[in-house]
Amino acid sequence: MGRLVPSFHVLFEEYMNELRRNYQPALREKALRDAFDSLLDEAWMPEQHAMMNTFLPTVVDHLNITANVDNRRKIMDLTKRVEALEAKVEALRAELQG
Known about the structure:
Layout: H1 8-23, H2 30-44, H3 48-52, H4 59-97
C-alpha cells in the first residue's frame, strides 16, 4: 500500500512553487520581492530538515516559525553591531573631550 499523505518535502516544494508563481510576482515593490527571495534562500531552504522535525500542522506554520527565528538571529546580529558602534562612538567622544 502506498503513502496516503504526501511527505513534508513534497508539500514544502508545492507550497514554495505556489508562492513563487503567485505571491512573489504580486508584491508591488522590488524590495519586497527581493526580501522574499532572501527569506526563501537564507531562511527556509537551508532549514528544511529542521522544519520536517516539528509537529506543526501546516507548511505555512513551519515557514512562519523559521522566518521568525531567522528574523531574531538578524536582530541579535544587528544589536551586537549597534552596541559595538556605540562603544566606538563613546570612545571617540571621550578621546575628543580628554
